[in-house]
Amino acid sequence: MSDVQDTVEVGRRRRDADEPRLVDQQQAEALVAQAREQGVELLGDGGLLRQMTKAVLERALAEELTDHLGYEVGDPAGQGSGNSRNGYSAKTVLTEAGAVEIDVPRDRNGTHEPKIVRKGQRRLDGIDKIVIGLYARGMTVRDIQAHLAEIYDIDVSPDLISKITDAVLDEVKEWQSRPLDPVWPVVFLDAIVCKVRDAGTVKNKAAHLAVGVDVDGKKEVLGIWVEQTEGAKFWLRVMNDLRARGLQDVLIVVCDGLVGLPAAIEAVWPDALVQTCIVHLTRASLRWVNYADRKKVAAQLRLIYGAPTEQAARDALDAWTDSEIGRQYPAIRRQWDAAWEQVIPFFAFPPEVRKVIYTTNMIESINYQLRKITKTRGHFPTDDALIKLLYLGCRQIGRTARAARAGRSTYNWKIAMNQFDIMFPGRLDKA
Predict the structure, then answer these.
(1) Distance between CA atoms of 125 and 93, rounded to whole angstroms?
(2) Is residue 211's pLDDT more than 80?
(3) What pLDDT, on the 0 to 100 scale, is given for residue 3?
(4) CA-based diameter of the chain, in Å?
(5) C-alpha span between 309 and 314 (Å, rounded)
(6) DSSP β-ladder status, 219-227 and 249-255
């Protein structure tokens, strides 16, 4: 057996040993064999799985009532107790096995409040998790309805699916206002554009994301803001929002040359260093370039942002301008000149810090995955609907990333932190 197979088999045995097994293998095999003998399907309406779900739920509900009354069925201790069993009420609940009809036991005084299937509850919590999970992966309401019907044989209306996902909005508001650490070494600002209906018209709106790297090198989406137009007032509101939640200082803010953003950053965090995102600047430059020339131009631009000093970068930019291919694309020089004040800080950083700032795979990866789940929508009915989906997407991405990295921080982060401490003396002490 190969090493990989050994690992799989050992993993299976360990998991079996650690987890409690309420139904052993022989019992399960006997149930399946009996179902087949009687012509009962394993899944579907009236299938074995639904029958078992019904039996377990009804048994658990009966035990709950026994615990509430304080005596078993037929126990003489119940005589004169002031309360007793009073038959059953039938209800249908949606479960992960499908729709199951159960008999819920009642007490005569009506004081019993069941916990497993609450009064008025028509679906178990597992269904909500399934719906929200599918929604977070980009499935539309109609897609989810069809999926539940096909896989779980559950007939759920689009309105119910919307109500289930709308329940997340309270969670979104809490997440958007959660307290933040006082100091973040690096904050990235980026946006994705989506179509949103506003005042009866579908418009392009930007969903702006702030992604921070904390003192331990862990990445976190700090917030999402939707706006049709950007400007100093909008960015000042975003920065003040972050500061009100506890974010008192940022060492470096990495962003595009967005209108009004540098001024808003300076107003709220006057000591923050604003750095243009080199990846975005390079990508914007390549938009001017014919496909056949892109590799050559990209290699030339790499000489600029890869230069060891600001003067060397300026020399490389001048050499680009005077080159034959540089003369073909004069707009690129104008772009770099316009952004140069926010490009300059990059050359003062040591290689360890440059990698943290330049390597924007983290925020690029988030945006890529969020675009995947938003592109299935023609447009969103409201700003809240867009924020809801982006939040669920971020939550799903975060869970996947945590599982993949298992607590690993940004590459070479300890070295970068030592450089930050030298470059920004005393500012990390508040962290």
Answers:
(1) 11
(2) yes
(3) 37
(4) 102
(5) 9
(6) unpaired
C-alpha closest to that of 98 among 23, 150, 35, 169: 150
| 97 contact partners, CB below 8 Å, separation of at least 6 | 43, 49, 50, 52, 53, 152
183-198 vs 249-255, strand pairing mode:
parallel
Residues 288 and 265: beta-carbon distance below 8 Å: no
Mean model confidence pLDDT for the chain: 81
Tell me the one-letter amino acid at 31.
L
pLDDT in tens, 181-207: 999 999 998 888 899 998 889 999 989
Question: Interior CA angle at 316 toward 310 and 320, to 5°?
Answer: 145
pTM score, whole prediction: 0.70
- Counting every residue written for the chain, the total comes to 431
Which of 404, 383, 400 minimizes the C-alpha distance to 133?
400
Q: Tell how far CA 308 is from the center of its chain.
A: 37
State which amino acid sits at residue 208.
H
- pLDDT tens per residue across span 84-125: 888 888 888 777 666 778 888 998 898 988 877 778 777 776
Helix axes 158-166, 125-136, angle to 10 degrees: 90
pLDDT of 7 reads 29
CB 187 within 8 A of CB 212: yes
Rounded to an integer, what distance in angstroms lies between the CA atom of residue 104 and that of residue 119?
A: 10
Query: How is the chain split among helix, strand and coil, in percent rounded to 5?
Result: 55, 15, 30
Beta strand extents in 248-405 (DSSP E only): 249-255, 273-276
Q: Which amino acid is located at 24 in the chain?
A: D
- Strand 219-227 relative to strand 98-107, pairing: unpaired
